[in-house]
Structures are given as structure tokens and as C-alpha cells.
Amino acid sequence: MLEQSAAPNLIDIRSVCRSFPKGSGENLLVLENVDLTIRAGEIVGLLGRSGSGKSTLLRIIAGLVDPSSGEAVCRGKKIAGPPNGVAMVFQSFALFPWLTVLQNVELGLEALGIDAAERRTRALAAIDLIGLDGFESAYPKELSGGMRQRVGFARALVVHPDLLLMDEPFSALDVLTAETLRTDLIDLWTEGRLPIKSVLMVTHNIEEAVLMCDRILVFSSNPGRVATEIKVDFPHPRNRLDPAFRQLVDSIYGRMTQRTEAKSTAATEAHSGAGVGTALGHVSSNELSGLIETLAGPPYSGHADLPVLAGSLQMETDEILHLGESLQLLRFARLSEGDLVLTEAGLRFANLETDARKKLFAEHLINYVPVMGLIRRVLDERPSHTAPAARFRNELEDYMSEDYADETLKTIVSWGRYAELFAYDEQSETFSLENPH
To answer: Is the pLDDT of residue 348 over 80?
Structure first.
């Protein structure tokens, strides 16, 4: 124990902030005062919504991005460029299609200057360890998604890193393949067969974090901060159906919806000012209508436990919270302590015919989505009853990045068309009133 405490931590992140320039010339703060320590012998999870800065933090640790302020340290030395002993597994596999499995895995060793014979020996051992024995000569296009991701793991493990960084490594895989690969990795970890000391993984899947991690850092968004740290003391292998496991998953959902509820309330209070700058992730009106109908019907009768609802709809945490937030913004539902509850308006919407639904949707858009009210007001006041999308995109970019402004505008167009509040011409990027009064 004394030796372990005397050894430096693998990673120390101290008061790290990171900003990126916005279209308006100002900076968008993505990470704010983040502290994180990683020691040998643990799997640490960064859990949070898309856009909460988790992947940016991972890239700072990997030496691919510099912090704007604060300090990132690996084994007592400031991180300046990719540190030795840190390897990364990406969401997108990131394999070279013109190289075989063996050649892809050997790449990292070649960069370290290791001779051909040892490269081959170590690469074959990593391929065997990760369950791809017999596929050494195959090309990526000949492999399934799960097998390609196993190559990604073998390529990271073959350099025997102290720290393995994983950026949502299972999210591009189907449910069954992801589950198999998770289980295989945890088995190898608990058996001490992985040539690594620690793992830091980014995820937005609560069950995945509880299934794999010893510690979970829950991130809040805009900007990304560590909202809370949770220790997971369950022994491996972990059982998803165990009441204690379910209780922990429920409590994390509860924490995440409490913050969502507070953020939504703050946004709607700032109705005409900063409220215009509320970022909207793209959700179709069909998805919202379908979720309202599901919630209104049996067995939920308007009130659903989010983990149960996500499981029955085969959705991940990020997806179900995203839909729930949209319904909450529109006042058709509210998120509270891990539950999604339809409001009176939501229950009414579920029982209306199509035209009446559109009318109710339009009323809620104008009343509760400030940028929608702004667009309609500009169209009503202009003699031509038209306005370029750039007029509103520029305003949105005062509050958010260009990507978020684009996504918000796409959502606005989709919702406004459904509600028949305006027309939109894709080619000229122009809003107009179809029947101006």
C-alpha cells in the first residue's frame, strides 16, 4: 500500500478549462474547472450527455488537444503531445482499409521502432487475446463491425499501455455485439490478462458505466463539469437484474434528470433573451408524437420510469433524455427524479386527431420555444413575409457553436413545418408564410 501511494498517479487533471471559437468570434466554453485523478488498477467512466465535453477531456489526456487553462499531467509530467504509455480506442474503429488485421495491429509497434519479428509475435498475441485468432490476413471490409472494433482494441493493447482510453467504443455496434465485447473485456480485465494498468472510458450509457466501472464521474453540460463522482463497489461479473444494480442505475438517471429539470426551468424563465439561445438537438415531430402516445397508453398511463422506458424502446440514456427534454421544453411532459410524466397538455395531445394535434403543437411552439416565436414575429412584420435563415442562424451563433446553431435550425424547420407555422425553401434557405394574414 505504501509503494502504491508513493507512486505518482497515472493522470492528474487540475482545474482544466477548454474553449473553442464560435462563429461570432467569441469563445464557447466546453470544459470548466475539471479535476480528475486516475490511479493504477481501476476502470473510470466519464458519463454524460452528448456535447458535455467528455471526448474533449479524453483528447486532452491523449495529448491531442491542449487545455485553455489548468494543468494536465501524466505520471508527474505535463502532457505536451501524446504521452508514452497511453493508447486510445475510438468509436469509429479507425482502421486502415488497405492493411490486413495483422498490419493494422502492428502499426503502433512500428512507430515505436520495434523490430519485425517482435512486432509480429506481439501483434499475433494481441489478436489471439481479443478473440480474432485466424483472421490475421483478413482486411477490414471482410469483418463485421464487432470484429473491426476488436482489431481496434488489439491495436491499442499491443503497445502494452499503462492507460487505455476508450471513446464510446461500443456505441457503433448492435446491442448483442456490444454486450459480447463488453463482457469479454471485463473477463480479461478481472483475470488480469489485459496488458494495461487502468482504463478511462467515455460513455453516455448509464448501464454500461455501472456494468464496467469502479468509479463514475457524471458530467453536466454547457459547459462540461464534473457534477458528481460515484463509486461502484459491486464485484465482477455484475448482474443487471440485481436490485442494487437497478437501484444505482435509477439513482443516476434521477441525478441527470434533476439537472435537466433545473436547466430547462432556467431556460424558459429567460423567455425572450437568452431563451432564444436554447440549443435544440434534432428530434422529429413523429418521434415526439410516438413517445407521447407510448407514455399515454398502457402500461404507463402517462408516467414512466426512464430506465424501464429506455429498455422497452431499446434507447440509450442520451436518446431518451434528449426526447424527454424536448417534451419538457414544449410543456408536454416533465422530467423528475428519473421519471418522465405527461402534463395535462401531453395527455390531451395523445387523444387528439391530426389537425388538432398540429394546432396544439403550434401553440406550444410559439409560447415555449422563444426562437420559434421570433421567426414567426419577423415573418408577420415583414411586408414580404419572408426572411433568410442566415438572419436567425447568426443570432443563434451568438449563444452556441456553428454546429449547434445548424442543428437547432434544422429542428426549428422540422417542428415549424409540422405545426404549419411557416414554409421553408431548402435551396434558397428562406422562411416564408404560406398564408399570411
So the answer is: yes
Q: Strand 43-47 to strand 198-203: parallel, antiparallel, or no bridges (unpaired)? A: parallel
DSSP letters along 139-154, please? -GGGS-HHHHHHHHHH
CA-CA distance, 194 to 196, in Å (whole number)?
6
> Are the CB atoms for 150 and 130 separated by under 8 Å?
yes
Q: What is the CA radius of gyration of the chain?
A: 24
238-277: b (≥16 Cβ within 10 Å) or e: eeeeeeebbebbbebbbbbbebbbebbeebbeeeeeebbb
Q: How many residues does the chain have?
A: 437
Q: How far is CA 136 from the centre of its chain?
A: 33
**267 grid coordinates:** 431556460
What average pLDDT does the chain have?
Answer: 86
pLDDT > 60? residue 273: no
- Structural domains in the chain, sorted by start: 2-251 (3.40.50.300), 285-432 (1.10.10)
Please report which confidence band the pLDDT of residue 260 belongs to, taking 50, 70 and 90 as the band edges. low
Q: Residue 43: name the closest of 183, 169, 160, 210 by CA.
A: 210
Distance (Å, whole) CA 330 – CA 283: 12
The pLDDT value given to residue 50: 72
Compute how many other C-beta atoms are within 10 angstroms of the C-beta atom of residue 314. Answer: 8
pLDDT of 282 reads 83
Q: Is 4 strand, coil or helix?
A: helix
Does pLDDT of 293 surpass 90?
yes
The tens digit of pLDDT for each residue in 85-122 reads 899 888 777 888 999 999 999 988 887 888 899 999 99
Rounded to whole angstroms, the Cα distance separating 396 from 418 reads 22
Residue 155 in this model has a pLDDT that exceeds 50: yes
The grid cell for 402 is 456553428
Q: With beta carbons less than 8 A apart as the criterion, state whether 393 and 409 touch.
A: yes
126, 130, 136, 142: CA torsion to nearest 10:
-150
- The set of residues, in sequence order, having a beta carbon less than 8 Å from that of 356 and lying 6+ positions away, is none
d(CA 65, CA 169): 20
Residue 333's pLDDT is: 94
